[in-house]
Amino acid sequence: MTKFDVLTIGNAIVDIIARCDDSFLVHNGIIKGAMNLIDAERAELLYSRMGPAVEASGGSAGNTAAGVANLGGRAAYFGKIANDQLGQIFTHDIRAQGVHFETQPLESLPPTARSMIFVTEDGERSMNTYLGACVELGPEDVEADVVAQSSVTYFEGYLWDPPRAKDAIREAARIAHAHGRETAMTLSDSFCVHRYRDEFLDLMRSGTVDIVFANKQEALALYETENFDLALRTLAKDCKLAAVTLSEEGSIVVRGEERVRVGATAVEQVVDTTGAGDLYAAGFLYGYTAGRSLEDCSKLGNLAAGIVIGQIGPRPMISLASAAREAALV
User: Fold this and answer.
1) What is the pLDDT of residue 254?
2) Cα angle: 132, vertex 133, 134; to 5 degrees
3) Is 260 helix (H, G, I), strand (E, B) or coil?
4) Residue 86: in which H helix or E strand, if any?
5) Strands, DSSP E only, in 62-191?
6) So what's the pLDDT on residue 10?
7) For residues 275 and 70, what is the distance between their CA atoms, to the nearest angstrom?
8) Using only C-alpha atoms, what is the Rg of the chain?
9) For residue range 130-160, what is the model confidence (pLDDT) as tens digits?
10) Exposed/middle/buried for 189, CB within 10 Å: 0-12, 13-18, 19+?
């Protein structure tokens, strides 16, 4: 038995979410559907131009940890914040979900990260992220005993943007494997893949990462191909297990020659796609660490993703555990 089912490591970010139309994105030079890294000055500019906004703790891996805990799993999280108002919001929110979070905050600048997220009428989100304190995450923030006691240590590809985080991830992976645990990563987004393709492939092919999460576009970008079947075959060779989300078509899991495809959960209305991939990973890893079949893991992932895209914000406002029971998945 381990103390935690899933440990996640990521950029600790508070999301500031507002609706807009496509012309707003064009006028402000925002790439639709992507995560755009910005500096403090642009963060202030975009904030001044936003309409009414909702503040919600986010960050890809933080959302995944919250999702695991919401399902009834035991989750932990590493992520760097500052000792400021947004940092206090982030800390409160993730602990309130029942997630272990003890990373020491910065006592000085830079401030806690924030992401201005613009949601268009089609539910697509365009993220503009000032990393702030996230860039200070380093090996000293790796709690070795937590890694050793976690069945799966999962991190986000976005962590490859702040340089010291790479050392933290490699140290966490070393500890995890030394204790017979597994590691997982999400490719995060296609632009992230383009920036770090060679490094991501090395993480997979070296065995540093066992499990990979991606969407279809990220998988295609990883192998620089438009042939999805080729991307899946290569992905199956490069890692132990991979789960690829396919939007309204559901998801597909590959493990060696095995293929498991599961349809999407029916959604009445797509309100905001923020957090969809994060919550898919949460549901999948919750099932995986409980020893469930790959089909059940996929169904749990699709259920969690389907619920979160029906609301504003990246963390479910209802009980995923109750929803999973109603769907006879637990």
Assistant:
1) 98
2) 90
3) strand
4) helix 85-96
5) 75-78, 100-101, 113-119, 125-130, 150-156, 182-186
6) 96
7) 14
8) 18
9) 999 999 999 999 999 999 999 999 999 999 8
10) buried
Angle separating helix axes 276-289 and 294-308, nearest 10 degrees:
150
Q: What is the pLDDT at residue 88?
A: 94
d(CA 246, CA 187): 14
* pLDDT for the residue 330: 86
Query: According to the model, what pLDDT value does residue 272 have?
Result: 81
Residue 145 burial (10 A CB sphere; 0-12, 13-18, 19+): exposed
Q: What is the DSSP letter of 269?
A: -
pLDDT of residue 133: 95
- DSSP codes, 16-82: EEEE--HHHHHHTTPPTTSEEE--HHHHHHHHHH--S-EEEEE-HHHHHHHHHHHTT--EEEE---B
State how far the Cα of 268 lies from the Cα of 249, in Å rounded to an integer. Answer: 15
Contact criterion met (CB below 8 Å) for 148 and 175: yes
Measured CA angle at 147 (ends 145, 151), to 5 deg: 120
End-to-end CA distance of the chain: 20
Which segments of the chain have a pLDDT < 50? none
Q: How many CA atoms lie within 13 A of 300 on its CB side?
A: 32
Q: How far is CA 146 from CA 59, 102, 208, in A?
A: 20, 10, 18
How many other CB atoms are there within 10 angstroms of residue 37's CB atom?
A: 18
Q: How far apart are CA 283 and CA 216, in angstroms?
A: 18
Q: Is the peptide bond before 316 cis (omega within 30 degrees of 0)?
A: no
